[in-house]
Amino acid sequence: MTNEATPLNFIEQIIEDDLSKEYTKEQLCFRFPPEPNGYLHIGHASSICLNFGLGERYSAPVNLRFDDTNPAKEEQEFVDAIKHDISWLGYTWATECYASDYFQQLYDWAVALIKDGKAYVDSQTSEAIAEQKGTPNTVGKASPYRNRSVAENLELFEKMKNGETKEGEHVLRAKINMESPNMLMRDPVMYRTLFKNHHRTGTDWRIFPMYDWTHGESDYIEQVSHSFCTLEFLPHRELYDWFLDQVVDPKKLRPKQREFARRNLSHTLVSKRKLAHLVSSGVVTGWDDPRMPTISGLRRRGYTPESIKNFAESIGVGKRENLIDVSHLEFNVREDLNKKAPRIMVVLDPVKLIIDNYPEGKTEMLEAENNQEDESAGFREVPFSRELLIEREDFKEEANRKFFRLTIGKEVRLKNAYIIKGESVVKDADGNITEIHCTYDPDSKSGSGSEASLRKVKGTLHWVSEPHALPVEVRLYDRLFTVPSPDADKEKDFMGFINPDSLQTITGYAEPSVAQSKSEDKFQFQRLGYFVVDRDSTSEKLVFNRTVPLRDSWAKLNE
Question: What are the start-end ranges of the E strands in 239-370?
Answer without folding.
Answer: 256-260, 263-265, 322-324, 343-344, 346-347, 350-355, 363-369
